[in-house]
Amino acid sequence: MQVQTHVDINSEWGIVAARQAGRKLAREIGFGSVDQARITTAISELARNIYLYANQGQIKIEEVSAGGKQGMKIIASDEGPGIKDLRRVMEDGFTTSGGLGAGLPGVKRLMDDFSIESEVEQGTVITAVKWLR
Amino acid sequence: MNLDIQVSEHENKNVAQVSGEVDVYTATKLKETLTPLAEQEDKELVVDLSGVDYIDSTGLGIFIGALKASEKSGTSLTLTGLNSRVKRLFEITGLHEVIDIDSTKREEA
Amino acid sequence: MEDMKVSMYQLYKDMLTSYLEDKSEHALYHAQQFSKQMMEQDMSPEETVSMHLSVFQDIADDLPEEVTDSFDLLLEVMIGYGLAYREHQSLRDRQQELESELNVAAHMQRTLLPNKKIEIDALDFGVVSVPAGKMSGDYYHYDIDDRGNFAVAVADVIGKGVPAAMSMSMIKYAMDTLTDKQMQPSVVLESLNRVVERNIDDDMFITMMYGVYHPDDHYFYFSSAGHEPGFFYTAKDDTFVSLEAKGLVLGVSPKVRYEEQKLKLDPGDFVVFLSDGVTESRVNGEFIEREQIVDMIRERLHMDSQEIVNEIYEQLEKAQEFQLRDDFTLMILRRKV
């Protein structure tokens, strides 16, 4: 049975809790300190987006394996306003979060796989995976 | 390179007092102020250019836009206080024939 | 990739060891060169910090726990810098992409301008046209019509850059559709005005000066759509006068009549067409006066037209420290014999 953790995001405390849980799991899976910090930053950015733009949502983290590789998956979901122009938020220079100034393109860079689904008025689901090398 | 616009509302007209340089950098600001005024159906628009030393072609375009907007809304656009350099620009472009220019206020400079 | 990291690690370890031994400037110089290598290999700031810590742990025994822990914080901070650095790189790539796209567009735009040689014995013709940026809002034209008359034009779209350039191509295509090959200035401007008025933004317009020279009787006919006046030089009196004709800029009103003027060109007489990029050149922060342009031409009366316009452009470009504020077009048409 693989590890799976949910953290509800409705305050800055939630962001910190998600970071903590993410860093712990990353360490357990065997990521080095740089990748641990990257994964944590990615979680942080995703959680901040939820907190700032959707008020509340959820970060789910889990261990994954595929094709002999092991990794860690982050799923950030909310039922907030959604994103109208996905292409635009994925462009560099368009900063959605006041966080590290990285926004979603930053998360994509920090992780290996990245996907986003969003519907206006419905919410957004972002999935990102980092593989162990 | 700055532009200052003061708008005063009167019973049947709006007066926009413009000072500074009207160029490619400040044109947007002027447009954002003048267009809604020119679109007001019941009031004429007077633009006082006494404080303007220089207008470039982009700036001139804003007045054409305002003229077209005021024609659509059935009112009028009048320019006053043009200095000689600005006045020459309106004359060269033939715009003095289509825009009402009141030259009683300022001819020197 | 991994091998590369191993060798970078070893290099860094050697450098740090040597520095800790002798604290030499030499080792620091190596570090500076090394940083370039790191960037070439896309090594991020956070990887660098992490490498420093590992190397440090390798060569120094018993690092105090506070030192090791402090790197956690530094690592976290550096990730932000790393992202900013990558974003910067990607924006730089995109800028290069846009730039090359713009170069292609600028090249296409140049193909809209005439480039054939003029072969009329009586004429000496020269033109220079340089955009302030990559693309131009100025347009010029010359052509010989069916009856052997020589037509010239200079047009100026307000603003500059890409939006002006897009409108400029409209003028070119509109001129191509003029069916009447005997080009009469007032008629040409009237029909261009109709096209422009229908197709241009409310707060844009185009100015244009259009002229036709008849080599058989040496008359020059011209009309202006609100364009910067040119000059007319008469050799007999050695004087310049302003070349003006009444007419509204293109694109403001659908029905406009254009006044047409005519001049007799005697041998040595010439007309000058220009765009306001010439008259609005600022030298030492001051606009140059039209008189100064006249003076510059006067000093070069002995040269041929192309030399005159080239030299004036070069002089004004230099006086403005090679920063043109607006697109620049200058044209001279002289009757030789």
Automatic annotation (TrEMBL), chain A:
<dbReference type="GO" id="GO:0016301">
    <property type="term" value="F:kinase activity"/>
</dbReference>
<dbReference type="InterPro" id="IPR003594">
    <property type="entry name" value="HATPase_dom"/>
</dbReference>
<protein>
    <submittedName>
        <fullName>Serine/threonine-protein kinase RsbT</fullName>
    </submittedName>
</protein>
<keyword id="KW-0418">Kinase</keyword>
<feature type="domain" description="Histidine kinase/HSP90-like ATPase">
    <location>
        <begin position="34"/>
        <end position="133"/>
    </location>
</feature>
<keyword id="KW-0808">Transferase</keyword>
<dbReference type="InterPro" id="IPR036890">
    <property type="entry name" value="HATPase_C_sf"/>
</dbReference>
<dbReference type="Pfam" id="PF02518">
    <property type="entry name" value="HATPase_c"/>
</dbReference>
TrEMBL record, chain B:
<comment type="function">
    <text>Positive regulator of sigma-B activity. Non-phosphorylated RsbV binds to RsbW, preventing its association with sigma-B. When phosphorylated, releases RsbW, which is then free to complex with and inactivate sigma-B.</text>
</comment>
<dbReference type="InterPro" id="IPR036513">
    <property type="entry name" value="STAS_dom_sf"/>
</dbReference>
<dbReference type="Pfam" id="PF01740">
    <property type="entry name" value="STAS"/>
</dbReference>
<protein>
    <recommendedName>
        <fullName>Anti-sigma factor antagonist</fullName>
    </recommendedName>
</protein>
<feature type="domain" description="STAS">
    <location>
        <begin position="3"/>
        <end position="109"/>
    </location>
</feature>
<dbReference type="InterPro" id="IPR003658">
    <property type="entry name" value="Anti-sigma_ant"/>
</dbReference>
<dbReference type="InterPro" id="IPR002645">
    <property type="entry name" value="STAS_dom"/>
</dbReference>
<keyword id="KW-0597">Phosphoprotein</keyword>
<comment type="similarity">
    <text>Belongs to the anti-sigma-factor antagonist family.</text>
</comment>
<dbReference type="GO" id="GO:0043856">
    <property type="term" value="F:anti-sigma factor antagonist activity"/>
</dbReference>
UniProtKB/TrEMBL annotation, chain C:
<feature type="domain" description="PPM-type phosphatase">
    <location>
        <begin position="124"/>
        <end position="335"/>
    </location>
</feature>
<dbReference type="Pfam" id="PF08673">
    <property type="entry name" value="RsbU_N"/>
</dbReference>
<dbReference type="InterPro" id="IPR014787">
    <property type="entry name" value="PSer_Pase_RsbU_N"/>
</dbReference>
<protein>
    <submittedName>
        <fullName>Sigma-B regulation protein RsbU (Phosphoserine phosphatase)</fullName>
    </submittedName>
</protein>
<dbReference type="GO" id="GO:0016791">
    <property type="term" value="F:phosphatase activity"/>
</dbReference>
<dbReference type="InterPro" id="IPR036457">
    <property type="entry name" value="PPM-type-like_dom_sf"/>
</dbReference>
<dbReference type="Pfam" id="PF07228">
    <property type="entry name" value="SpoIIE"/>
</dbReference>
<keyword id="KW-0378">Hydrolase</keyword>
<dbReference type="InterPro" id="IPR001932">
    <property type="entry name" value="PPM-type_phosphatase-like_dom"/>
</dbReference>
<dbReference type="InterPro" id="IPR052016">
    <property type="entry name" value="Bact_Sigma-Reg"/>
</dbReference>
<dbReference type="InterPro" id="IPR017944">
    <property type="entry name" value="KaiA/RbsU_helical_domain_sf"/>
</dbReference>
